[in-house]
Amino acid sequence: MIDMTDDYKHKGARKKLIELLGTKGITDARVLSAMLAIPRHYFFSSTFHSHAYEDKAFPIGEGQTISQPYTVAYQTQVLHVVKGDKILEIGTGSGYQAAVLMQMGAKLYSIERHEALSKKASLLLQKMGFAPILKCGDGTKGWMEKAPFDKIIVTAGAPVVPETLVSQLKVGGVMVIPVGDDKRQKMLSIIKTGENTTETIELDYFAFVPLIGEKGWKK
Ligand code: SAM
After folding, report:
1. CA 182 to CA 185: how far, in whole Å?
2. DSSP letters of 147-178?
């Protein structure tokens, strides 16, 4: 049973969290208002609702985590989401990042390698009234049948930029991806400037769970 009550305590805690994100440098009002609208505690089991509005990552099962709210806001801000954008997410996890992107008007495709997480996220996002297109599999290979995408967001730490993903971006499209070792990764914003050209902007360091797959870390 998913507890979908969103009372004044949740709303108050959420508002405080969003204010905190503003002080940490998240300036895109559309990102902040989408995160204010999405009850993050829906993505937690009811035992842990009290942790939902801390600016922290939290375990979601299968050894994975729901990303820290600041990280979700940061990656979303880098993407410059426009209503109607066709976005591919790698690492559905809890579904929270997907919900934020859909709240901003994105048509969302998302791949998760753990079937149990994918199924749980699918059920919750549908109950919330969203219609994401989800699949279970290795996201490092992208989603050829659905490409090209306006934006791609990778929510797990990659050892290198998977070229397959770049090839599935539209010209003018943007990919946000954390790349580094198993301890820390640098956030990259990769803009596809032409069929065979890209421009990469190096941003801040983060610590993600590993991107595991053919073009990622090996199991
Ligand atoms: N976006 C998620 C959220 O909002 O909860 C964050 C999820 S967590 C930080 C990263 C997710 O990436 C994990 O659920 C993990 O199983 C998944 N993952 C890792 N490698 C993957 C791959 N090759 N393809 C798809 N998902 C992958």
Report:
1. 8
2. --EEEEEE-SBBSS--HHHHHTEEEEEEEEEE
pLDDT at 200 over 80: yes
Average pLDDT value for residue range 65-70: 97
Asked whether 206 and 185 are in contact (CB, 8 A), the reply is: yes
Distance CA 154, CA 165 (A): 10
- Angstrom distances, CA of residue 193 to CA of 38, 106, 127, 174, 207: 33, 22, 38, 9, 28
From the list 46, 50, 67, 189, the catalytic residue is 67
How close is the Cα of 207 to the center of ligand 1, in Å? 13
Instruction: Please state the rounded mean pLDDT for residues 209-215.
Output: 96
Q: Choose which residue among 155, 164, 168, 219 to substitute to test ligand 1 binding: the one with the highest number of ligand atoms within 8 A of its C-beta.
A: 155
